[in-house]
Fold each of these.
Amino acid sequence: MNRKNKKAAQIWFSVMVLAWPLAGTEALAQSAWKPGKNIEILVTTAPGSGSDRSARVIQKILQDQRLIDVSAVVVNRSGGGGAAVYSLLQQKKGEAHSIGISARNLIANPIVGRGIGYRDLTPIARLTGEYIAVGVRADSQLRSGRDVIAALKTNPGALSFGIANSLGNSNHQAVARALQAGGVNAAAVKNVVFQSGGNAIAALLGGHVDVVPASLGVWIGPLKAGQIRLIAISAPLRVAGDFAAVPTWREQGLDAVVSNWRAMVGPPAMPAAPLAFWVSALKQVTATAEWKRELEDQYLSDEFLAGRELIRYFDQEHVELKAFLTDLRLVK
């Protein structure tokens, strides 16, 4: 984006924030606009990720509950830590029939030099939050998070980490923050980037990487199959159910609490009426029994947020994440 276009985008963004009604008001529910053609739900990862699953559940609920009168299709466009999706959305300026599901790379990308971020698009709503579990193969000699710290203390390149789907995101932070707390030079660790959590876990099982941090939902299958061992979780307290036996980083003396979120974004300069429609429609999606079952099954928390509060949240995240990525020497 050249300087002139970037300045125009920033001006539009500021105007939209000032004019944006708060989520949950009657104005959102009464939007007169409705999609007039088929909807694309763009996913920044390959199939097999938590984001992909969430997108497909949203697609189904939108259609089953007749929240839209047109069809919706999920399109996976992995690459560049979400940049492939964000670039496509940016080309659809002013449109409202393509929306994308995003994660913390929406904040990290412009910081690390991948260009398009939340100020270049139209943030619609934050939907969910989740913690990150760190796994190794079941036959690994690594039995705990402390074992990982010990292995890297003298040689930061001794282990390889499978990160989906970009450096600086929540998966990366869930190990990097713990490594920093344990006195390891996290900037010198060997990281391999994959296009989905499923791909990273497949590489782990194949012996191509040693450690993988990934969202809780994608671990359930291999955990129940006995293929992996989870050695740490980025929650403040232990998580119940399938993850009850997994110690937190804090239990292991490492203060590393990281929660990932998923949000929906649209093209830049999305008009107010379509924006209001999407906030209202997604709010209705999150109120359904099917969505609530999905949250429970995948260990997600309901963290719906829209309007000015969402922008304030993203702005705060940007400040905190820039400081963290500076420590990792990833800032461009």
Amino acid sequence: MQEQIEKIKAEVEAFDLNGSEAHAEAYRLKFLVRKGVIATLFDELKSVPKEEKGSVGKMLNDLKRFAEQKLESAKAATSNAPAEESLIDLTLTGRRQFLGAEHPVQKVLSDMKRIFYGMGFTLRSGPEIELDDYNFTKLNFPAGHPARDMQDTFFIRKSESGKGESGKDDVVLRTHTSPVQVRTMLSEKPPIRVICPGKVYRNEAVSARSYCVFHQIEGLYVDTGVTFADLKATIYSFAKQMFGSEVKLRFRPSYFPFTEPSAETDVSCYICGGKGCKVCKQSGWLEILGCGMVHPNVLRNCGIDPEIYSGYAFGMGVERTAMLRYGVDDIRVFFENDVRMLSQFE
């Protein structure tokens, strides 16, 4: 029996596991399973003379532990070996990390916010899907106003009361950020000095100077004694900080339902230098914003007494301003996500 044990131990020592899972499994099946070689020796222990059982049993236990330790060592060596596919090829060239860049429209919007923050304005925001009551009615839009027509507005839900008519329960994609001004005046008391940036939507033909979705930033100032002179001073201060001290401005009388008097403000076209191009429609000027004194009806609709308070409001397209700053002659490039264009603003 002792000779058999020594013979099996020699086989265990000689068995080449070769760092392979298949070899380890073959080793386990031969020596360590219930009907393996070592287990068979334990079954034969009962035939060993009583006076030898103690010494033979100890040899068998030592053999079993030795075989198990060899298998465990082989498995540990296999698990610690690096996988072939995870090895690093030090001959490869380095990998460049490509970092994203801030979109030019967002860069301009950030600068616009910074300028207005410096003039004492604070930020307000609101939903992009808006009620007709906030988008039109409270802003003094008559029921038959052209802006209510499907050619200008994306309606989410529209009443069937007739062409040009609209109910307070109509739901639209906001056509301007003016509803944020309405919500602010309904929830806060004067003095109010806020800017309202965000996306707006217009059902317009896409061209070099207009798009169906764009960013807008509007401003509102309501207090006692606010005049049109305050409005012009704010616009001039913004334009000089945004476009430089040499910028040229002109105010043209205009009409908006929510302001009276109203004006549109143009800057000399930076793209063509005032000579005329497709962006400025050959006029040499580019409109950047509309503005005016808040209409008394709007103040009343928002619970503010126009006999005590007055205010001004303005709104401008961020993309149009970005076109001026960077000399871009087509608004559509801002929405194409062309990496060649965007990489210029890293």
Amino acid sequence: MEDTRFKKLIAEAPPEEPARQYYFMEQVRRLVEIKKKSGYEALFKVEVIGCQMSARDGEKLSGILTNCGYTPADSVDHSDIVLFTTCTVRENANERLYGRIGRLKHQCAARDGMILGIAGCMMQEKDEAELIRKKYPYVRLIFGTHNVYKLAELLFEALWKDARIMEVLPDSSLIVEDLPSVRKYPFKASVNISYGCNNFCTYCIVPYVRGREKSRNSSDILRECEKLLGEGVIEICLLGQNVNSYGKDLAEDMDFPTLLSNVAELQGLKRLRFMTSNPMDFSEELITVIEKHPNIERHIHLPLQSGSDNVLRRMNRRYTKESFLKLAHKIRERIPGISLTTDVIVGFPGETEMDFQDTLDVLRTIHFDSAFTFIYSRRTGTPAASWEQVPDDIVKDRFARLMATVKQCSRENEGLDIGKTMEVLVEEADKERKGFLTGRLSNNILVHFEGPSSLIGQMANVRLVESRDFYYLGVAASDQA
């Protein structure tokens, strides 16, 4: 009888998305209400491991669970559902995930009806998903990047059948948006403009786990941005693995500079960001758009990865040391005060000391405001994984020298804006200083200043009075309410 009822409910679900998922949210909500009568608390925690794309997936998962009748928990210790949205770009991300689910084994056994789930990039790796299936039987939900939107449908089956559900799709051309979302800050939001990547850098697993690039229609993106602005959002971040290549797969005549300009012109948008740009196709038109619109953040993350032409060629990065330097100088000349940050990989297979010195030379020449530095992580399935690796002792020595160079360059950029009054988007109360607030300048640099909590979520004029490594201490301008 129960099986018949389940099949009937499945058959009644709308075939089109996202209506189908809203139907299953309602079905889960009914099950949750029944379970609550027996003491079920219906608490959830979504834990994010990974990049901005993974964090955006986490917001969607939180929104779906909230619509399903669940309530956010303060910690995983008191949660009936714990979901991890994962990253697999580097090995340490995988190790973090295994450590965290290992610590939840006893909680899963002790908390009746608890569901532990893993979603995202790591589950798109067949070996990792199979390892979870075999060695972690208490992980009851397993799904990948291509069906994050299906959480309610998968959860409904898991709850109804009290069973383990695993669904990892190898790829999908479907883009499902217009789903509920729960954000950390009500006044800031991220909007996906594309999914996947076509670049196939030889060290990177992303194209294999997130699939080929799929751009969203510009009208859908603009409609989502307008909706967010209507809800009180004042900062939007446009997300893509490489935003520069947005639109190349669309039938409409649309590229990223045009999209960025269209979003920047929306009424009520105070600040616009984007992540991430590949130096190979960062166009003149894009610089012009940023230059023209003052609400586009004066911060560009431009991943270098290596300063050696030899290494860049084997990485399949499709730019050179010279072209990167030319681009960075052009951006700085055209957009004064802009903050440039970057990514650097040390120890790529075959990297020589001369290659490494080329990287240091770029860092010393550009003086990035900050750099995310990584030791090369061998990812099974990528071309570079089978190449001869640089010995660990050499890599560790180079990494130490890289870090010293990055810190020195960052220090030389410190304090350039001391004495200026600049606009800060106030994000939250300072966790370390009572009575202080924390926010960011348009160039993404952090500012701490004394002020009333009523300023949170607003743009505030702040005079910068002191530089402390990677942030400023400031004073609210006298005309500030």
